[in-house]
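Homework help board

Subject: predicted structure for assignment chain

Our instructor gave us this sequence and asked us to write out the predicted structure in token form, then describe one feature. I got the tokens but I'm not sure how to describe them. Can anyone check?
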Amino acid sequence: MIESIKAKLWDLLKEKDVSLAMLYDRDGNILWHKGRKIIGKTIDEGERFSKSLIRKTLDSNDVFEVDDVFVTLTDNNLPESAIFLPIKSLIIVPVDSHFFLYIDSGTRKSFKDTDREVFKVLGELLGKMIQQIERTEKDIGGITGVSTQIQSIRKLVLKYSIELKPVLLVGETGVGKNHTAELIHRFSGRKGRFVEVAIPSIPESLFESEVFGHKRGAFTGANENKSGLIKEAEGGTLFFDEIAEIPVSFQAKLLQFIDTQKYRILGDASEKISDVRIIAATNRNLEEEIAEKRFRKDLFYRLNVLPLKIPPLRERREDIGLIVKENEKHLRGKALGDEFWDIAMEYDWPGNVRELLHVLMRAGIELKGPVIGADINEIISDHGKRSSAGVGSQVDEIWKRIESGDDFWETVKNPFLNRDLNRTEVKEIINRALEKSDGKYKNTLQILNIDSSDYKKFLNFLYDNDLK
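My token output:
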């Protein structure tokens, strides 16, 4: 998507006499640039490009084509010879109602007419891609809603997908941080995979090995070479979930990797270079973690380049109705009465969107009658008790759905891929099925409501996701 368009754009520009290519938005944020070094992250604070012409584009959607521009630089540290930057040729193309593509030739020769036409076509392609993403993301679960907060998040997801810098997602449990991270990766069009580092599930002693990989014999128990998660995410996105729980002993190494994109496999003398984008998420206040010396301040600043805070559901109650409507399938044909809506709108949903979806699933399975009303209180109350009891509560809910006839793909695989179920929970479900089938995977098919013809598909899912 956008990533491939940007790559093709720069490949083409390198063949032309281009000094600087830059993408910026109508708010004046510089989202991407290639070529000569510039100063600043916004148009207002930036230097080494034509700010006056850019400001004109912010008030219109016209294409600007100018030759022999002189850019005045105001950095007091610059030598006198660099106070004026002559630009032989410049073109600014609107790629969408909110984005602009800036290209100049610097002190090189002016652009040809054919070059200008190519730049315009590339701008149009990028604009169409952005419009496609804007249409698509409005209909994707996880950031569903009509509130001003969720509309702002949609715009940031689009902007951040264009960028390459780290993203830090902050929000309570269940607001959709994992899903938002996947959307940013998906819209970026990066060719590599989206790989999650499930920090809480990795022992501190094995953390560096899991992320960077190791060579055979690097430490006791390293009986064979192991590729790290960075290698798996090559060309894609590495997502650090619950970044506040990352071992202090590894934080300096992660900081160095973000700065240089270089890392060293345990037991290997040479450094590797990786093309991986970093996204991190947390439900904690990292500034408090810094004050308690559990998190490095410099790592926080590296990660917090592109921050995105996802508000809890109780702060955007106007979104509840749309979320419920998009997930009506979980109700199994039951209707929702006025009392349901009164309760749903008053309840604070401490587990946020995830809790709301789980309540809908259980209501569809457990509540009798064609209309769900005040009896939803029973589900909410019981769900709260189960949640406080521990991880097994969600597994119990999924198991009930399987026992009632729902198939494995709908109840387990899809929620797992959407990050609504974690690997530990899926393994628990598989283990329950194995206990009932003499430990044989083939015998679990009937228990999990999987067609016998899908046995190979089932095994591939287990192997691909390290669930066997």
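Reply (TA_rk): Your tokens look well-formed. For the description, you could write something like this. The longest strand covers residues 84-94. That's the kind of observation they're looking for.
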